[in-house]
Specification:
Elements (H helix, E strand, L loop, with lengths): L1 H16 L5 E10 L11 E2 L1 E14 L4 E6 L4 E6 L11 H13 L7 E7 L9 H17 L5 H15 L7 H8 L4 E6 L5 E5 L4 E7 L7 H19 L9 H7 L5 H25 L3 H17 L6 H12 L3 E7 L6 E7 L3 H16 L4 E5 L6 E4 L7
Parallel strand pairs: 4-6
Antiparallel strand pairs: 1-3, 1-13, 2-7, 3-6, 4-5, 7-8, 9-11, 9-12, 10-11
Helix pairs in contact: 2-3, 2-4, 3-4, 3-5, 4-5, 6-8, 8-9, 10-11
Length: 388
Amino acid sequence: MMNDLRLHVHRAFTQHFGSAPSFITRGPGRVNLIGEHTDYNDGFVFPMAIDRAAWIALRPREDRHVIVRFLDFDETVEFSLDDLIRVDDAPVEYIKGVAAVLQSADLTLCGWEGVIKGDVPIGAGLSSSAALEMATIRAFEAVSGFVWDAPVMAKLGQRVENEWLGLKTGIMDQMISAAGQVGHALLIDCRTLDFKPAPLPTGTVVVVMDTSTRRGLVHSKYNERREQCEAAARHFGVTMLRDVSFEQFEARAHELDELVRRRARHVITENARTLAAYDAMQHGDPRILGALMDASHDSLRDDFDVSTDSLNTMVETAQRHPACYGARMTGAGFGGCAVALVMENAAQAFVNFVEGGYHHQTGQTPALYVCLASEGASIEVVQSTTTP
C-alpha cells in the first residue's frame, strides 16, 4: 500500500501540474500499544509508527504561496505564507498551522504546490492529523532547507494542535510519526522526549481493529480529562501526575473527589504498565505484554471512561480468540480503533474470527489490518529520470 500511494500522488501531481514532482514526503500514522492519556501528564507511552501514512508530492514555487490539492476531498486550496489566518476546521488548516508555527520558530519558508493523499483512517485514533503535520513539515523542509530534528519537529507539530487548532493534545502522536523505527515500537518519555526502541516479541504481529465508529465530542471530552488530571496533580503538589507514585496516590486517594480519583488512578497505573511493557518486550514475553494491554483497557474503560460499547465489544471479541495475547482500545477513545497482539501464524484466522463476531454482535462492519512498524516521516528527492 505504501508504494501504491507513492505512485498515486506522483501520477496525480504530474496530471494536475503538468510535470513530475520534485519531492515526495510521507508522515506515518501510529498505533499506541500501551500508555494512553499519559502523554499530556508527562508520562510514558509505547507507540509504533505504522505502514499507513499521509503522502505529499510537491515542487517548490518562486513565490510565497502554497497550493494544495487534497485528493481525498477533491479540493484545491491556495494561501499565502504572508497572510495566515485560521478560517475553520478544514484539512488545509493543518497545512496553514504548520506554516504559522514554523515561521514563529524563526524558520524562513518557501512556497510550494503539491497533492496530498493518505490512508490513515480519519477519526479512528491512529493519528491521521500528526501524519499530515509531519508530512507537511517535511514538505516545507524540502523546499526551504532547514534542518530536520525529530523531537524539535514533534514539538512544533504539537503546537499546531495546541495553538492553531485549540486542542490540548500531548506530544506522543507527533513524536512517533517523526521518529518511528522499522520493526520497533518506541518507549517515549513524554517529559524529556528520550526514547528507547524495542522489537515486538518474536512470532507476534499487531492487528489494528477499526470499529467503524467515529469519535463524537472528542475534543471537549479530551480537554475535560486533561483538566481533571491537572486538578489531581495540583492536589498532590506536583506539576504533572507523572511525579506521583502509586504509594503516594494510595495514601491520599481518599482526599480526592471520586471522579478525579479515578482519572488519576488510571494515569498513575498506566505509567507503571507502560514501563512494565517495555521490560516484557525486551525479554520477548508476549504473554506479559498481552496481560498488560488487557489491564490497560480495563482501566481506560472503568477509571478514565473513554471506551464505548463498540470498543468494548471489539476488545472482548479479540480476547476470546486463542491466538490473541491481549487487546485494548487505542487512541483518545470515544470511538475509533482497538489494537491486539496476536500470534503471527494465526493472524488471518484471528481477523476472520473478530470480523465475524463483531459484525454479529453490533451489525457494523469493522476494518481489521495487520500493521508493520515503519520508519518515521521521510523525504524522497524525485530524480528527473524517475518514473512513477
